[in-house]
Each structure stands twice: as structure tokens, then as C-alpha cells.
Design brief:
Blueprint (H helix, E strand, L loop, with lengths): L3 H8 L6 H13 L6 H13 L4 E5 L5 H9 L5 E6 L2 H13 L7 E5 L2 H4 L8 E6 L6 H11 E10 L15 H15 L4 E5 L5 E5 L3
Parallel strand pairs: 1-2, 1-4, 2-3, 4-5
Antiparallel strand pairs: 5-7, 6-7
Helix pairs in contact: 2-5, 3-4
């Protein structure tokens, strides 16, 4: 069994630079909870493993996960990121530009994910990252399966939801929604999936090729 010390070591295995630290400071200032360092490192790795040229993100926040994805994808790859809060996206844009990301490489759309996602192209994305309203996770999976190309990845943050998912006594709407997502994915024999205990948990799903 992995100890807390080992989990903490894994979480900090890939250190963060000044741009990621700035994005985290912005997140704290506006009350946004970004992906934790271990999950951030995994996103960069997965974007690279997918050879991603197009990624869709639900939940821009202040740019921690977006910068991680941009750094892992192809040099000319484009990130399309959706968030309800325009101010958060303004801060994310500043971080991306300061980190040397060309403005042509990201498209920030302000609005509700379930309003925006239906307007995106079927099969047009190598990876879809979901970090929005937990109650909507099941609907995000429906949209992501449509948006992702065959063989592409769908990734959900907060898949352990602050240790609540593993505790059957926890039955609030967000916990139930995340738990139901995990059960649905595990029961689907066509989907390859992996639950990583990095950050607050990452569920990685691969669409059939």
C-alpha cells in the first residue's frame, strides 16, 4: 500500500515554474480550485501521448490545467477552453501569453459547458478534459464521447472528490454524480479506463479506436 509520504513525493515529482505558480496565485485570489500538481503533470503527459493537436477543456479556471495541456500538445496545437467566468479566462489568457503561448493556440469561450459543447465538431478533438460542475459529469461524458476522435482520451479531474467517492456514507449530489460516472465507465466494456490517485483523482478514458 502506498504511504502518504510516497503520494506526496509523487505529487511534487514534476516541479512547477513561475508561470504555473502565477496561475495558482491567481486561482487563490479569485477562489478557484485548480488541478493539483500531480494531475497537472499527468495532463501534460497525456496530451503528449495523444499527439494532441486539438483539445477541448471544460473549466478554464485561471489557466493551470490549460497551460499544462498546451505544453504537452503539438507545437501548433489549439486548446478550446470553456468557462462561465470571463474574469477567470482573462487571467488565464495573461498566463498563457506570459508563458510564451501564441494567441492563435488557444480559444477561450465564455459560457455554460452544456450550451457550448454541442456547437463543437464531432470527432474533432484528440483529448477532452473535464473539470466543471461535478453534477454535470455524466452529461460531459456524453458530449466528450461525441467530440473525441477514435482512440482519443477523455479525462475527468476530481475523480476521488476529496475522499468522498470512496466513502459510501457520502451521498451529496456532487459525490453521487462522480461515483455514478466511475461506475458507468467501469461497466462499459467498450471503454478502456484508468483511475489515477494523483491530485484529487484523475479518471482517464480512451474512446474505442
Amino acid at each position: 500500500m502506498t504511504t502518504e509520504a510516497s503520494l506526496a513525493y509523487a505529487e511534487q515529482y514534476r516541479p512547477e515554474d513561475e508561470h504555473l505558480r502565477a496561475a495558482r496565485a491567481n486561482a487563490e485570489s479569485v477562489g478557484v480550485v485548480p488541478v493539483l500538481p500531480g494531475a497537472r503533470a499527468a495532463l501534460t503527459f497525456l496530451a503528449g501521448a495523444a499527439g494532441a493537436r486539438n483539445i477541448a477543456e471544460i473549466g478554464t479556471g485561471t489557466g493551470v490545467s490549460g497551460l499544462a495541456l498546451l505544453r504537452g500538445m503539438a507545437p501548433d496545437g489549439v486548446l478550446t477552453s470553456v468557462d462561465r467566468e470571463a474574469e477567470n479566462q482573462r487571467l488565464a489568457r495573461e498566463v498563457f501569453l506570459a508563458a510564451g503561448i501564441a494567441p492563435t493556440r488557444f480559444r477561450l469561450i465564455t459560457g455554460s459547458a452544456l450550451d457550448v459543447l454541442p456547437r463543437l465538431n464531432d470527432g474533432g478533438y484528440d483529448l477532452v478534459f473535464c473539470d466543471g460542475d461535478k453534477v454535470e459529469y455524466g452529461e460531459y461524458l456524453d458530449e466528450a464521447l461525441r467530440l473525441t476522435r477514435p482512440g482519443g482520451f477523455i479525462v475527468f479531474d476530481n475523480a476521488l472528490w476529496h475522499d468522498r467517492v470512496a466513502d459510501p456514507a457520502q451521498r451529496d449530489p456532487s459525490t453521487l454524480a462522480v461515483r455514478e460516472l466511475l461506475e458507468r465507465v467501469a461497466a462499459d466494456e467498450e471503454l478502456s479506463s484508468l483511475l489515477l490517485p494523483l491530485g484529487d483523482g484523475l479518471l482517464v478514458v480512451q474512446k474505442p479506436a
